[in-house]
Structure formats: structure tokens, C-alpha cells
Please model this.
Amino acid sequence: MGSSLGASVSVPLIAIAAGLAMFGLFVLAIGQNPLEVMAVIFDGAFASAFSWQNTLLRAAPLMLTGLAVAIPAQVGLVMIGAEGTLALSGLAAAIAAVHAGGGAWSAGLAALVAGAAAGAAWTALTGVLRAWRGMNETIASLLLSYVAIALFNHLVDGPLRDPASLNKPSTLPIGDAAMMGAIPGTDLHWGLAIGALAAIAAQVLVSRTPLGFAMRVAGGNVRAARLVGLPVQALLVLACALGGVASGLAGAIEVVAVHGAANASLLAGYGYTGILVAFIARHQPLAVVPVAVLLGGISAAGSLLQRRLDLPDATTQVLQGLLFVAILASESLHGRLNWRVRPVRTRPALADGPAGQA
Model:
């Protein structure tokens, strides 16, 4: 138990250090001082109250998109389609908020419910394809993400476009009254609190409930799960749906707390960055919160790098990519070098029925 806990902490830290080292070499190669670049990233992420505000605003959707990967991982699935789910759910939230009757509270609540429902339904399709048709969930989720983004672009630029949105196609605005307010005493919206509470709830579900135990058993050994009578196929679909709720809430919150409508600004890469968040957190829902803050800070520092050092803000994306490479390599090497600590299972081999024909 102690060695497992130590590995859960040490492996990501070593991977982050390795990623930073590789980023330092990259910075040297482009003629910059790595220490200076790191200092600017820290300043842009954590050095002031304004930096913290930008960091936490970016961390809020990353908490939810990280959970969209971490929850299905409990049953052994690698899901990478949160970007499309976020966009489609944001569109559903915008439509619901515009057409909801009643006051501002009902419009905001309708947007959150519609976003969560759309995310659950869309992501559950991947679970259905995996459980009953044997499709690889990574490929299925990625392809469905492309379909979701295409549908989003078609509807926003076509049937649902606000005629007043000239240069930037957008749906009808939901109105200031339906917008999510700020946490009292801060300039941060309530989406940050929702993301943190969702992570806590997911951690309790995974580690403290019979359902969470069943999910982990199904993810660890499908044959054993079947022998004890667990409904493995239903658990796969349920885990996907719960992950979809998380990414759906991320899309809805971006609409009701930031943009006020569904437009191309929703496609900001939060779904893709959520994959990195979940892997660094080793698919532990509660660990998603600090990792989301870290990566949110890195993302927030991009504009400061551009102003101070004349580096493109995409430099931070290079850092995120190197961190992803490092964390994947660390999982593989740790599993090979230390047999006593088993790596996270990412692919159940369904042995019975159509799902076993993948």
C-alpha cells in the first residue's frame, strides 16, 4: 500500500521533471535561456493575484475534461473525445438557455442540465460501441469527436446562427441574466467550484462506493468480474456516460460563464488538454484538481511569454506535449522496471460476446 501510494506521487513528479528538462533543451535550441523562460511561465501562472485568476479560470474546464478521461479509465477505457463532447454540449446548453421559460435561474439551470445530458448521451455511444460491437474505444471516441465538431460547426454557421453575428458565427446570446455569476469576493465564476466538487464526488464514487469498486474490478480483470456476476457491459457504458456528464458540464459552463453563446471559442483545446491532466493525475479524480491548476497556469502564461520574450504563445503547447510524452514514457518504464507496482490498466480484454471481437 505504501509503495503504491509512493509510486502514485513519485512517478508523475519524475515525469514532470523529465518533461521540464526536455523543454529546457528545446528552449536552448531556439536560442533562449531556459531559466528565464521558466521564470516568465511562473510569473504568468502564479506570481500575482491576476495570474492566479487567469490560471484558475483555465483550470475550471480542465478539471471537468480531466474527469471525462479519468472516470472511464476506472473500467480500463482510454477516452480522447472530450473536445467534441464539450463543443456539442455547449451548443445544447446555449439552445436550452435561449428557449428556457421562467427567470434567469431556470435558464442557467436548463443550460447545465442540457449540457450534462448531451455529454452523457454522446459519450455513452462510445461505451455502446465498445461493449456490444467490440470497437476500440480510443478510436471510436476520437472519430465521434470529429463528428461532434463537424455538427457543431454546421449548426453554428448554419441553422442556429445569430444573424447579428457577422464575422464570428455564433448562436443567439443567452442574455446577461442567464450568465453564471462570480464567486463572492472574487472574479472567478462558479464553474471552478463545480469542477472541484465534481472531482470530490468522483473520488468518493470510485473509492468509497460499491459501484466504484465494481468499476475498478471490471477495469482490472474482466474475466473475474464476469465470474462474480458483474454487468461488465453496463459498467462500461455507465462509466462513459459519467465521463460525458463531466465534459458536458465543461461545455455548458463555458457558455453560461464565459462566452454567453456557442461559437468557435468553445474549441479551445480543453478536451485535449484534459487527456494530459488525467494521465498526470494517474486517473485519480481528486488529483485532477491540482494538475488542472498546474496546466491551467502553463496555458495562462502563453501571452506573457509572447510579450516579454517575443515567443509564440504556442510555446506552452510544446511544454504540454513534452509533459505528455514524459508521463506516457514514465508509466511504461515504471511498469517494466518495478514489477511490484502494477501500472494503470488502460484496455480491458473483453473475452465474451461481441465485445471480445475487437
About this structure: The mean pLDDT is 89. The longest helix spans residues 104-133. The CA atoms of residues 74 and 216 lie 5 Å apart. The domain at 2-344 is CATH 1.10.3470 (ABC transporter involved in vitamin B12 uptake, BtuC).
